[in-house]
Amino acid sequence: MALDGCGIACKYVLILFNIIFAVVGFAFLILGMWLRFSNETRGLFEIPSLNSSAFVTGVTILIALGSVMLIVVVFGDYGVCNEKRCALQVFSVLLALLATAEIVCGVLAYSRRYEVGLNFAQFYTSMYLLYAKNGGDPAIGVSLTFIHYMLHCCGVTGVPLMELAKQTCPKPDGIWEHLIMPNCPEVIVTIFDSKASLVMGIFIGTAALLITTLVCAITLLKQIKRVNQEITTYYSTVY
C-alpha cells in the first residue's frame, strides 16, 4: 500500500521542480523588492507621471511573478512531501494557469514584437539613467555589465569615449569599436524584432515544462488516491 515506481519518480521530479522554482522565485522577488525600495530607485514610484513607465511596470511584474512562483512552491512542496491531495489539486490548477499564461504571453510577444522591444529598450534606458544619476551604483552597474556583454553593445550612444557607463561596456573587438559600438536600445529592439520566433519558443518551451510537471502532479494525485482506497479497503476488511 505504497506509491509504485511511477509515483515515486513523479514525486522526486516535483520536488526538483519546486526547488528550482523556489530559487528563481526568490531571485525575482528579491530583485524586484530591491528595485522598488532602494534609496536610488524609490523616488521613481513617487512621481505620478512615471507610474506607467516601463521601469515601474517591469519592477511590479518582477515582484508579482516572484510572489506567485513562491505561492506555487508552497502548495507544491506541502502537497508532494506530505502527499496531501487538496494541496496537490491547488498546485495543479496554478500550474495549468501559469502554462496558459506562458502560451498567451509567447503569442503576444511574437505578434507585438516591436512594441515589446521598445518597452524593454525603455526599461534599459531607465536603468542607464539611474546609474548615471546616482554616480555609478554598483548593483545597477552589474545589471548593465551583464546586458552590455550579452548583447555586445555600449550604453545609449554607442560611443565608448562619451559613455557615462563606459566601464560597464565590453572590450572592443577591433580599432573601429574603440570609436563606436552598437547602442543598446537599438540592439534590444532589433533583437526582439529579428528573434521573435526564438522568444516565442522560450515561452512555449517553459509552458511545455510546466505541462510536464502538471502531468506528474496529476499522476501523483491518482497514485495517492489509489493508496488511500487500498488502505480504506484493508481496514474495512480487517475490522
TrEMBL record:
It is a multi-pass membrane protein. Pfam families: Tetraspanin. The keyword Nucleotide-binding does not apply. Disulfide bonds join C154-C169. One of its GO terms (cellular component) is endomembrane system. InterPro entries: Tetraspanin/Peripherin, Tetraspanin_animals, Tetraspanin_EC2_sf. Keywords: Disulfide bond, Glycoprotein, Membrane, Transmembrane, Transmembrane helix. It comes from the Eukaryota. Structural component of specialized membrane microdomains known as tetraspanin-enriched microdomains (TERMs), which act as platforms for receptor clustering and signaling. Participates thereby in diverse biological functions such as cell signal transduction, adhesion, migration and protein trafficking. Regulates neuronal differentiation in response to NGF by facilitating NGF-mediated activation of NTRK1/TRKA receptor tyrosine kinase and subsequent downstream signaling pathways. Plays a role in the inhibition of TNFalpha-induced apoptosis. Interacts with SLC19A2. Interacts with NTRK1/TRKA. Belongs to the tetraspanin (TM4SF) family. This is Tetraspanin. The lineage of its organism: Eukaryota, Metazoa, Chordata, Craniata, Vertebrata. The gene is zgc:65811.
